[in-house]
Specification:
It contains nine helices and seven strands, in the order H-E-H-E-H-H-H-E-E-H-E-H-E-H-E-H.
C-alpha cells in the first residue's frame, strides 16, 4: 500500500485512506442538490487534518455529473502580492468557473463577452481619433465592482439553467477562506455572499481553510449571529485516532497480496 505523506492534497483512491464516514455524509448532503435543496457547508478542523484533500476527493467523485468549481484564495495573484480585494475574489471565482465549464465541455465564449459588457461602466470619452479629418470620440470602459459581483455570483445558477440537461447542479468549493478576514469590512462581504447563496436553488457551497474550530471567522460565518447563522452546516474533520493511525501503519507495512 502506498502511504500519503505530508500535505499531499490531490490523493487518488489508492492513497486516500479512511474518512469513509465523512465522505459518505458529505456525499449524501451534496448529492441532494439535484432536488433543488442545495446545502452550504463549512469544513472545520486543525491545519493539516486533511480538509483540502477531502474537498478534492469530493470534487473528483462528482465531476462527471455536477459542475464543480474549486478555488484556492491563496493562489490569487492579488493575494500573493498583498493586494487581495473583493474584486480579486470575484475575478478568481469567474476564472475558475470558466475553467470548470471548459473541462466539462460547456461553451463559455458568450459568458466572456457578456462579462465584458455587463461589468463595466462606459466612460464618455477614452480618446479622440481623426477620421476623414473629423474628430471621433471613442468611449472607454470603467470597472464597476457592484456589477462584477452581481454578474459573477449569479453566473453559476444561470449556467445550470442553461445546461440542466447535462448537469445535476453546481458545486463551488472555496479553500483558504480565512483570507477574506483581510478584506475591509469583511463581515459585510459575508452578508453579501449570504444574500446571493440563499437565493440560489441549484448551487451548493463548501468553505474551508486554515482555521481551527475556535477561529473568530467561524462565529462570523456560522455562529448564531453570523452571516450564515442557521443556514450553514458545520462539519468538523477530526484527526485520526491512535488506533486508526496504527492500523494504517500496519496495513502499509504488511499489505495483502
Amino acid at each position: 500500500m502506498a502511504i500519503a505523506w505530508g500535505t499531499e492534497n490531490n490523493l487518488d483512491d489508492t492513497l486516500f485512506y479512511n474518512r469513509k464516514e465523512d465522505l459518505k455524509f458529505l456525499t449524501n448532503i451534496l448529492d441532494s442538490s439535484q432536488y433543488g435543496s442545495t446545502p452550504t457547508i463549512l469544513l472545520t478542523g486543525i491545519r493539516g487534518v486533511g480538509k483540502t484533500a477531502l474537498m478534492n476527493k469530493l470534487k473528483n467523485d462528482f465531476k462527471n455529473e455536477y459542475l464543480v468549481i474549486y478555488m484556492d484564495l491563496s493562489l490569487s495573484d492579488k493575494y500573493q502580492k498583498g493586494e487581495f480585494t473583493r474584486e480579486a475574489f470575484m475575478e478568481l471565482l469567474y476564472k475558475e468557473l470558466i475553467n470548470a465549464c471548459n473541462e466539462f465541455g460547456l461553451k463559455t465564449i458568450d459568458k466572456k463577452i457578456e462579462k465584458y459588457v455587463k461589468t463595466h461602466d462606459i466612460k464618455l470619452i477614452k480618446e479622440i481619433i481623426s477620421y476623414e479629418n473629423m474628430p471621433v470620440p471613442i468611449p472607454g470602459l470603467k470597472d464597476n465592482y457592484s456589477k462584477l459581483a452581481s454578474f459573477v455570483m449569479d453566473l453559476p445558477q444561470k449556467i445550470y439553467e442553461e445546461y440542466q440537461d447535462k448537469l445535476k447542479g453546481v458545486f463551488i468549493f472555496i479553500d483558504e477562506f480565512q483570507i477574506i478576514k483581510g478584506l475591509d469590512e469583511y463581515n459585510n462581504f459575508l452578508w453579501f455572499l449570504r444574500s446571493i447563496v440563499q437565493s440560489q436553488k441549484n448551487v451548493a457551497y463548501m468553505f474551508t481553510g486554515s482555521m481551527s474550530i475556535k477561529d473568530s471567522l467561524i462565529e462570523d460565518i456560522a455562529g448564531k449571529n453570523g452571516a450564515f447563522g442557521g443556514r450553514m452546516l458545520s462539519v468538523d474533520i477530526s484527526p485520526f485516532s491512535y488506533e486508526t493511525t496504527k492500523l494504517f501503519e500496519r496495513k502499509s507495512r504488511f499489505p495483502r497480496v
